[in-house]
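Sample log: UPF0434 protein ACFOMD_18290.
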Amino acid sequence: MSEIDPRLLEILVCPLTKTRLRYDAEAQELISDAAGLAYPIRDGVPIMLVEEAREVKG
């Protein structure tokens, strides 16, 4: 499991809501609490496409 660069996390936002993301290291996802979506991180690369995100149960 790879860690995401904290500087990258500071500049990435949810493409749908333009809000900050929360990093879930265990699931390797970036979570948008505002949109209720989790964006996957594959091979250390965040996949910031709404079509690729999964819904997060709130």
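Observation: The chain has a mean pLDDT of 94.
Observation: The helical segments are 6-11.
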